[in-house]
């Protein structure tokens, strides 16, 4: 991740495109053609599912708004595998070219402030930052359990977060920073991610 170039700008998309989204089919097409790695695809689907559920259940947003959260989650790492050094820039430019709603593009640009140099502004931006790292971490924890997500509890995740050798590539600093920025309790988000993520496995 250290070779990623910052985006060099903080504003994305065009207000005139508000409300324009990719259909579910178009979004999944993009995912499957850009991302050969199944594990990465699953990660993107998990972030998408948790984002959408958060928008609906915690923010009380209507379906059309929650769909944008799903879309941003689904595509946030679309260019990571093929363009590791230009991660984020390529997918942003693609979505700008396709005239997608600026809030979706802004959200994708906000998912790693330390890497891309973009501060999360909206609730959607802050939540992708918080959910992204935590989702990957919790999935890593599930993979080493015989029963995967079944019976997984919040405390065991919190304990693993305090164990630097477990999933060492996941930045604990980013997780702490993200939940602070979102103004939510880490415990609550861990619980939510476990609940929602357990059914997203394809
Ligand atoms: Fe990610």
Structure characterization notes:
GO terms for molecular function: hydrolase activity. Keywords: Hydrolase. This protein has a single domain (21-197), classed as Hypothetical protein af1432. With 202 residues, it is mostly helical. The mean pLDDT is 96. The protein has ten helices and no strands. Helix 2 packs antiparallel against helix 3 and helix 5 (102-109) packs across helix 7 (123-143). The radius of gyration is 16 Å and the shape is globular. The two termini are 26 Å apart. Fe (ii) ion binds at residues 43, 47, 76-77, 132.
Write the layout of secondary structure elements.
Elements lengths: L23 H11 L3 H20 L5 H13 L13 H9 L4 H8 L3 H4 L6 H21 L10 H8 L10 H11 L3 H12 L5
The chain binds fe (ii) ion.
The site of fe (ii) ion has 5 residues, from α2.
GO molecular function, one term: hydrolase activity
Keywords: Hydrolase
